[in-house]
UniProtKB/TrEMBL annotation:
Pfam families: UbiD, UbiD_C, UbiD_N. NCBIfam families: UbiD family decarboxylase. Residues 17-90 form the 3-octaprenyl-4-hydroxybenzoate carboxy-lyase-like N-terminal domain. This is UbiD family decarboxylase. Residues 309-441 form the 3-octaprenyl-4-hydroxybenzoate carboxy-lyase-like C-terminal domain. Signal peptide: none annotated. Residues 101-302 form the 3-octaprenyl-4-hydroxybenzoate carboxy-lyase-like Rift-related domain. It comes from the Bacteria.
Length: 485
C-alpha cells in the first residue's frame, strides 16, 4: 500500500484505529498472563501486527505492544514515503517546535489522579506491568518516557530507560551516562532529589522523538512537536515542575533519590543478552495520573519496536554526520542482525579511490556503538541483507579492503567485549573496549569492459505479470498427471 505525503499521526488512539482498520492490530483473548505469556504473544506477532491485550492478568487496564514494529509504519505515521524517513526525522531534530502548556482540565492524562503520600496507593495494583524475558528480575516498565528538568536551566530532557518495579512506591532505573545522568549528578551533588515524570502510552512520533541524538539543552518533546507539525500540548505534573505530554495515557510522577542505590536487573536487553544485576538509582513515586480508560504500552525488549526506535534516530544522526564531510554519502542503515546499533551499511556515490575508508572512519567517529561498517555503491539496496552480502562477495578482498582498528571504545552491552577479563566484569572504564571493522565493498571506478557490469535482463522491471500470465491454467498446456506417460 502506498502512503504518500499524508498528514502525520499525532495521537496514539488515532494511530491504533488506523492500524485496526488495515488489519494491523490483533485483539488478543482477554486475560493472558502478565508474566511471559503477554510478551511471548507480542513477540510472535512482532513486525506483522500490533497486539492489544484486554484484562491482562485480570487487570482492568489493557496493554498494547508493537505498534511501531516496521520501518514502513513509522514513515506512515510521519506521513512521508519510507525513502524520506531519515531526512524527515533529521529536519525535525534540527528545527524543534516549542511545546504549548495546557490547563489540567484540558489534559486527558490528568483525568484520574492517584496520590501515593502515606502509602495511599500501590503501583503494582495500579498498572499491568509485564515480566518479559526468562531471567528478568521481575516486572519492568519498558516504554516509559523519563522526563526531567536540568536543575540549572529548567530545560527538559526525555529518554526511555528500563524501569524495574521495586515495591509499592519504588522503582529501580538504569541511567546510562547521558543527559538524565548529568541532571541527576548535578542534583545529587547538592544532596537534592531530581524530579522526574514517566509518560507511558504516547503517540509513535513522540516515542521516536525521545530517542533523538540531540544536544543536552534540547527538550525532545520539541522534536515531537516538529514531527507533529504543531506544538505538543503539555501539562505540568501535579506534584512537581516537570511538563508531560497532555495526551499521554499514563504518567508516573516521582523523584530520583540522592545517595540511594538498590539492586536492579538482570534484564534482557537489545543485544538479546542479559545485563547484570547491579546497584542502581531509585525513584520514589509521588503520584500516578492517567486517562479515564488508559492503555499501558510495553515494548518487548530486543524486538522490532525496540530496535527501530533506537535505529531511526541514530541513522538520521549518522547520515547527517557523514554528509557534512562526504556529501556523496547517499544513505545509511543499521542492520537488524547487528542489533540496530553495531553494524552500519553506508551507501556511497564514490568519486575517488580510497574514499570508502575515509567514510568508515567517519562512521566510527559518529557513534561509539558502531562496530562494523560496510561501504557499498549506489546500486546496492542497503536494506536488503542479500544485496549487501553480494557486494562483499564480489567487490571486496580482505587483504586490500579490510580495516581493523584495535582497542577502541564500543558498546558496554556487547558481551564479546568482556572476553579476556578472566571471568571478572570489566571495571567501568574498560566496559565496551573492543575493535572496529570496516569493509570497503565498492567496485573500482575504472575497470575493463563488463567486469563489474551487473547482469540485468532488459524489460525485467517493466513486466506486467497480470498481463503476461495467461488466464488459462498451465495444466492444459502440460497435461494432467493421468494423461502423463
Ligand atoms: Mn537528550
Amino acid at each position: 500500500m502506498a502512503h504518500l505525503h499524508t498528514a502525520a499521526h499525532t495521537s496514539l488512539r488515532g494511530w491504533l484505529r488506523h492500524l485496526a482498520a488495515s488489519d494491523r492490530l490483533a485483539a488478543i483473548r482477554p486475560g493472558v498472563a502478565l508474566e511471559h505469556e503477554l510478551a511471548a504473544i507480542a513477540k510472535r506477532l512482532d513486525g506483522r501486527q500490533a497486539a492489544l491485550f484486554p484484562h491482562p492478568g485480570g487487570h482492568p487496564m489493557p496493554v498494547i505492544s508493537g505498534f511501531m514494529s516496521r520501518r514502513a509504519w513509522i514513515a506512515e505515521a510521519m506521513g512521508v514515503p519510507e525513502a524520506r524517513l531519515l531526512q524527515h526525522f533529521r529536519a525535525a531534530a534540527e528545527k524543534p517546535l516549542a511545546w504549548r502548556e495546557v490547563d489540567p482540565a484540558a489534559a486527558p492524562v490528568q483525568q484520574i489522579v492517584h496520590r501515593f503520600a502515606g502509602g495511599a496507593a500501590d503501583i503494582r495494583a495500579l498498572l499491568p506491568v509485564p515480566t518479559h524475558s526468562e531471567h528478568d528480575h521481575g516486572a519492568y516498565i519498558t516504554a516509559g518516557l523519563v522526563i526531567a528538568r536540568n536543575p540549572r536551566t529548567g530545560v527538559q530532557n526525555v529518554s526511555i530507560n528500563r524501569i524495574q518495579i521495586h515495591g509499592p512506591d519504588r522503582l529501580g532505573i538504569l541511567i546510562l551516562p547521558r543527559h538524565l545522568h548529568a541532571f541527576f549528578a548535578a542534583a545529587e551533588a547538592q544532596d537534592e532529589a531530581l524530579e522526574v515524570a514517566i509518560a507511558i502510552g504516547v503517540d509513535p512520533l513522540t516515542a521516536l522523538a525521545s530517542q533523538a541524538i540531540a544536544p543536552i539543552d534540547c527538550d525532545e518533546l520539541e522534536i515531537a512537536g516538529a514531527l507533529h507539525g504543531q506544538p505538543l500540548p503539555v501539562v505540568k505534573c501535579l506534584t512537581n515542575q516537570v511538563r508531560v505530554p497532555a495526551e499521554a495515557e499514563i504518567v508516573i510522577e516521582g523523584r530520583l533519590l540522592p545517595r540511594v542505590r538498590e539492586p536492579e536487573g538482570p534484564f534482557g536487553e537489545f543485544p538479546k543478552y542479559y545485563s547484570a544485576r547491579e546497584e542502581r538509582e531509585v525513584i520514589a513515586i509521588d503520584a500516578v495520573t492517567h486517562r479515564r480508560d488508559p492503555v499501558f504500552h510495553t515494548i518487548v525488549p530486543a524486538e522490532m519496536e525496540h530496535l527501530l526506535l533506537g535505529a531511526i534516530p541514530r541513522e538520521a544522526t549518522l547520515l547527517a554526520h557523514l554528509q557534512r564531510s562526504f556529501p556523496n554519502v547517499t544513505d545509511v542503515h543499521l542492520t537488524v542482525g547487528g542489533v540496530a546499533r553495531y553494524h552500519l551499511v553506508v551507501q556511497l556515490r564514490k568519486t575517488r579511490e580510497g574514499q570508502a575508508k575515509n567514510v568508515m572512519l567517519g562512521a566510527f567517529a559518529g557513534h561509539y556503538d558502531v562496530k562494523q561498517v560496510i561501504v557499498v555503491d549506489e546500486d546496492v539496496d542497503i536494506h536488503d541483507a542479500n544485496e549487501v552480502e553480494w557486494a562483499v562477495a564480489t567487490r571486496f578482498q580482505a587483504d586490500r579492503d579490510l580495516v581493523v582498528i584495535a582497542g577502541a571504545q564500543g558498546s558496554a552491552l556487547d558481551p564479546s567485549t568482556t572476553v579476556g577479563f578472566a571471568g571478572n566484569k570489566p571495571s567501568p572504564e574498560w566496559q565496551g573496549y573492543g575493535a572496529k571493522m570496516g569493509l570497503d565493498a565498492t567496485k573500482p571506478l575504472a575497470s575493463a569492459e563488463h567486469v563489474f557490469t551487473r547482469v540485468r535482463i532488459p524489460g525485467e522491471r517493466d513486466v506486467d505479470l497480470a498481463q503476461a500470465v495467461a488466464a488459462t491454467g498451465a495444466a492444459a498446456l502440460v497435461g494432467t498427471p493421468l494423461q502423463a506417460e
